[in-house]
Amino acid sequence: MATSNKKLNDELRNKYLEVLKTFFDESGEEVLVTGTNEICLPCVDSEQNDKFIQIVVKVPTGSRDGDAFDGYSLAEDFKIKQDLKTQKKKEDEEKKKKKIEKDKRLREEKKKLKEQGE
Fold this sequence. Notes:
By secondary structure, the chain is α+β, with helices and mostly antiparallel strands. It contains two helices and three strands, in the order αβββα. The longest helix is centred in the last third of the chain and has 47 residues, at 71-117.
């Protein structure tokens, strides 16, 4: 009898949850199991505030209309979005730099005109 997809996904998820728990345990971290597909790590930030890192492990199945989940295309989409964001940030910084220079030039011209008028 063939194993159901749900059971196969559960086995896969549990395998990787166990790998993560073992890794963090061996790294000296306290690992809290907070759900069937998640672990939680208590930690502190740089200002010694108590925080938690939550790691959720899931085996996505895709959309309801039959499209299979494709992690490769999602990763590529994310990379493209990050590249566009970086490019836009550079363009915005250039615009800001030009505006600052323009404003500085205008203030200097205004100052000269004011000095000439006195």
